[in-house]
Amino acid sequence: MYAAMKGRDELMNFMVDTLAKGWSLAALQLTNCMGHTAEDLAIRNGQHRCARMVQTQVSKIKFIIKI
């Protein structure tokens, strides 16, 4: 979540890919103690590229689950 907040694109890309492969959708929907996801925190801090990475990966996983 810290990488998303700070706009660390390369780290976010690696983490999103790695977590999605090993943990699936649950890892991308984890929340902090205030109920915010990494995507929420990225958007709140103006890191739209990081938020988009998470959104794209979630969409891919949901598409695969439907098939």
Number of beta-strand segments: 0
What is the first-to-last residue Cα distance?
A: 29 Å
- Helix and strand content put the structural class at mainly alpha
Name the overall outline. globular
Explain this structure.
The protein has 67 residues and is mainly alpha-helical. The protein has one domain (2-66). The chain has 5 helices and no strands. Helix 2 runs parallel beside helix 5. The termini are far apart. The mean pLDDT is 85. InterPro entries: Ankyrin_rpt-contain_sf. This is ANK_REP_REGION domain-containing protein.
Summarize the structure.
This protein has one domain (2-66).
Blueprint of the fold:
Elements: H1 2-6, H2 9-23, H3 25-28, H4 38-44, H5 48-66
List descriptors.
Ankyrin_rpt-contain_sf, globular, 67 residues, ANK_REP_REGION domain-containing protein, mainly alpha
